[in-house]
Amino acid sequence: MSSQARMQLLTEKAIASKRYLYDANKQEPPSLAYLENAVNQKSITLKRSDPKLIILDLNGTLVYRDKSHNNRIFSRPFLMQFLDYIFERFYVMIWSSAAPNNVKKIVDAVFPPRHSSNLVDMWARDSFGLTTFQYRQKWLTIKDLEIVWERLNNQNRNRENPPIWSQNNTLLIDDSPLKAQLQPYNAIHLDEYDLELHRSRRDEELNDAILYLSDLRYESNVSAFIRKNPYKPRFKSKESYTQYLNVIEQNESYYRPSNQFNTTPASSDYKKSRRGDGGYDGRGLYHNDSNSSRQNLNNAPDVIERIDEFGRIRRDH
User: Fold this and answer.
1) I want to staple 93 with a disulfide (CB 3.0 to 4.6 A). Which of 59, 99, 121, 216 is the partner?
2) Domain 3-269 class?
């Protein structure tokens, strides 16, 4: 390595170290405009679903890669049913922090051609704008959906009546809440599909995700819906779910005094519907077994949350 290349690498390493400390210890909040839309705008349940974009993570979400056995790929249970469901009803793209060649290997291994050929796009580690040093390390990668919206909307500019992607119609499915910290209400976080869960043979997370998506696809505002009706992984005691709640609380705390009401999602939302035994979700809808019955039993008066001129969240009855 030349002295110039070595100096460049050392410079990148120094810059990256500062960024790492910031990313790891001080999470970035969502923009005020993003929070205003998620807090102030209601989601309306539509009679017919409108176009929505699902952004899929791969390793830990859809597959488990066993690095001790030459990166052997294990599909998550019910993966094919899940893929069939979403490709029939949603636009789908992939965004993974894995290297491009590994992303291609996973897609080729578990996505049948009828699905891989219909992907909107496929992004890998080279899409995060990492420095050379960061790219080679196990680095926290933030999936900023603003980048997706800008790029895809620009690509669709000359098409006739294309969908305009935004926080109203986009969903990220990932196992890491930290990666979605800039748009926390546009993501659901499944339990990480790791070696322990793979060996347990009791993982049904993708079936649960299908149930959740069967409601979300009819909603007019994805971020407002998820804020009121957060997805609950089966094993909520796991670190990923605790991490998710921390991200939500820290993000909203930037816009309200610490003594204001707690806007962390209510624990009752979706608590029974995802077990298949029936129950009410956060909108007053009753879910019976695997079918999502849309019986609106919520007669309570509307409560409108808004952000005032001082950045504080208010409730208007």
Assistant:
1) 121
2) alpha beta
